[in-house]
Amino acid sequence: MGTVYAGAQDRPEITRWPEVSAKIDQIYAEHDSRHTPGGVIAVLYRGEVVHLEGYGAANREFGVRWTPDTRYRIASITKSLVAYALLRLEQQGKLRLDEPLQKYLTDFPTFEHPLTLDHLLTMRSGLWQDEHLLGLTGLRGQVTIDEMYALSRRQDRLNYAPGSSASYVDTNFRLLARVIAMVTGQSFPEAMQKLVFEPLGMGSTLADPDMSRVFSDQATTYSEEGSAASARALRIPFGVSGDGAVLTTMRDMTLWLKSLRGGPGRALFERMIAPVEVTDGLGLEVGYRRGIYEIEWPTPSGGRIGWGHSGATGTSYIVWPDHDLAVAHFSNNSQIPTQRFNQLVTNAVLELRPEIAAAPRDVPQFAWPSARDVELYSGTFVEPQKGYVIVSEPWDKTVFHYFLGAAVMPTRVADGHYVPWPRYSESRIAAKTAACGGCSRPDLLVQHADWPAPRRFVRVREDEGPPSLRAADYTGHYYSRVLGVHYTIAAQEARSGDAAQEAPGDEELVLRIGPGIQAAQKLTLKPLLTDVFWAPTAESQVIDFLDYGFLSIRFERDSEGAVDRMYVSIDKVRDLLFERVRRGSG
Predict the structure, then answer these.
(1) Cα–Cα distance between 488 and 475 in angstroms, integer?
(2) How confident is the model at residue 518, as a pLDDT?
(3) I want to staple 313 with a disulfide (CB 3.0 to 4.6 A). Which of 13, 75, 276, 567 is the partner?
(4) How far is 346 from 349, CA to CA, in rounded Å?
(5) Would you state the pLDDT for residue 461?
């Protein structure tokens, strides 16, 4: 066993299935060096830890190895533990999930449709993503949890009626953390200690909202740049809580996984995975339940159904109830796909321990689209009424959709439609080609979970070039009453040879967020249709930590034909209204 940080416990790793452990060692071999970022893997069978081992460097610079007692920030796996805590409060009769959110957060706005705790817990709320709002306000520097709450309270309408659709939004769990604090009369970190960590004996675990704090026994997160790993400071400019605040060890994580198998924890687990209804119009079930995902793994003989969650720092776990098996993986190397490694470990266990196999489940098989269909579905498409944008690009053997700037999972064929794989993707697009007057590459007819009927998305014809525009129609100052921020649109000489293919001397529009001091607050608008633009953020990222490809911008005109307002959309913030308050760029 290698050197560990001060404070870590010097215990031998657990290897009770030698042949399985040998296979896992082989899977992890190329990442098992003192100077190679690695990780730690746990395997539990019938509630007993049968493998628990660290691999590679927790800190590369000092040659500190991963151990089961190395602390690590598990990011969004926090949501599973928060759901566990909330359901404990429900068991204790201290709250009901069908109660309105505003019963506990009395200063939170009300909407046309009631919003319950369960809507938040199951990602069916229709709330905006507060992290998107952070970027759209142009705020910079560290933003506190209370400031994030103030952002979420600015919302004046929902993206969709609660329960009618599902969308993975961190705001939901930041608000649930406040509910837990309100119900218990304690701070969120204190409440998590009393509700989860102390009862389960998780002595090295805490809910720490300060993402800049580094503990002596904590692994460093790395990203790969070419062939060399470089330390990556987690640039999270906002306060975290129920969405991703937990710092733990794999040894402590096994205690929580054990609790899901029997005793009071088993009832909580059954509540977490209970079916969730949604009237999405697509006939697709929502895989995100209460702080946990349904995970479908197709196999040649059928498939497996598991439950789990992952985190942006390189963490994931899967519970396989049919096999009474659980696999968890923390990695500080961005090049190690933790979910994929969990599947490799699962396959190794079931191959080497066939006695724990179970009857295969009915899991739909992946079907690659044809090369012709990949061509048909590739391109840039615009919905004229709302100005929503879909960019579809070939990816491996399929098509990768970017809808309102956020990536949608690769697609599979189902009843002549293309729908994302796996089925719990929040932006579930089912698309069919639509006639376009005999053109070789047609438009898209898109059915989205948020919409009651399909909408036509018009293909942007690359050979026609961008539509002509009068810059003076759009330049001026715009104000959002919701955000309390001004946007300015000005004209400048177009840069030759850029993505919009303007000729030298042409004008282009530049959108400035707030004061526009930072590069990330200035975006070039690319015309798609009349009064419809998009703003790619590749060069000037709107949100530092979250990489979204573009904003969607739509202008509206008054009865005299003058532009008097614009609507801004990015993934989980739709149709944010800005009123024109002054014309011209001066």
Answers:
(1) 7
(2) 63
(3) 75
(4) 5
(5) 82
